[in-house]
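Project outcomes to date are best conveyed with an example. Our students and postdoctoral researchers have been running inverse folding experiments weekly, and each run begins with a structure described purely in tokens. The record below, which covers 282 residues, was selected by the lab manager from last quarter's runs and is presented without edits.
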């Protein structure tokens, strides 16, 4: 399929899925001068046609995409169709490709807890792209016009790319929830939980500043302080023994990530040896 040049300033588009992500990207498109022609939620997808338009933006959840693509392909659609899901590549839009659209993905690696219509929200965001040449070309130019950064994430990498995203967001929040859980079991005041959140904010800020999270690992485990780590594990064994496997595996990974930066100190190597002996790998 040949590359098709589309003027981002005079672009016309329709939106399938006016949720938080779809509403945000739609506003970012309009900030470039693009004109939204149509919009449909789940109930109106069967009637949505973007024929003659430049872009059909599909912003629905990963599980819904196959069915949505099949429904949309029953009517004529735009020259290019881009989906915004993180875990699936462009092939999920094959029904639209068969119907004549160039298909691709444009996934913003950004938390969107609510609609974020200000175009400044797109600045510096990483966009994962793949698909047909015409779709990739448009996706890259849109990301650049928004002040973002884009790169191809091929189909074979897509699942683990998405998994890493869930670790960066959901995984971090899970650990914060665990800290909150422990604080409540200890009878600590709400101010202590807010303190943990501030600690997290500071650590993430340092990671963002350096661009290398492994370089800002800190705490007793990262230092190889076996005595302090042993006290932590003993206290956890009494208060919440069911959390021990998670915490030990997390401590192991802390030291493995620290080792990416250079050879571990003797104290760090001894702590890792002790942690590896604490639980069988699973």
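After processing, the design step wrote out the following sequence:
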């Amino acid at each position: 399929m040949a590359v098709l040049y589309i003027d981002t300033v005079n672009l016309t588009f329709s939106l399938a899925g006016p949720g938080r992500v779809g509403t945000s990207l739609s506003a970012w498109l309009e900030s470039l001068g693009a004109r939204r022609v149509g919009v449909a939620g789940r109930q109106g997808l069967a009637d949505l046609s973007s024929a003659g338009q430049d872009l059909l933006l599909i912003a629905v959840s990963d599980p819904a995409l196959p069915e949505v693509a099949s429904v949309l392909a029953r009517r004529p659609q735009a020259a290019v169709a881009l989906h915004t899901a993180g875990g699936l590549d462009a092939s999920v839009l094959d029904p639209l490709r068969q119907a004549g659209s160039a298909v691709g993905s444009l996934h913003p690696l950004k938390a969107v807890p609510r609609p974020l219509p200000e175009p400044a929200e797109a600045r510096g965001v990483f966009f994962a792209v793949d698909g047909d040449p015409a779709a990739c070309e448009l996706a890259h130019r849109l990301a650049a016009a928004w002040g973002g950064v884009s790169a191809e994430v091929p189909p074979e990498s897509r699942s683990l790319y998405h998994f890493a995203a869930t670790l960066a967001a959901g995984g971090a929040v899970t650990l914060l929830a665990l800290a909150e859980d422990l604080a409540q079991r200890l009878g600590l005041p709400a101010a202590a939980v807010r303190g943990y959140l501030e600690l997290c904010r500071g650590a993430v800020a340092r990671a963002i500043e350096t661009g290398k999270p492994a370089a800002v690992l800190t705490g007793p485990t990262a230092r190889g302080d076996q005595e302090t780590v042993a006290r932590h594990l003993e206290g956890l064994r009494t208060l919440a023994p069911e959390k021990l496997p998670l915490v030990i595996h997390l401590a192991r990974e802390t030291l493995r990530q620290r080792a990416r930066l250079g050879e571990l100190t003797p104290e760090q190597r001894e702590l890792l040896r002790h942690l590896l002996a604490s639980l069988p790998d699973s």
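The beta strands are 12-16, 35-40, 55-58, 80-83, 102-108, 126-131, 149-152. The longest strand covers residues 102-108. The training component of this project remains on track.
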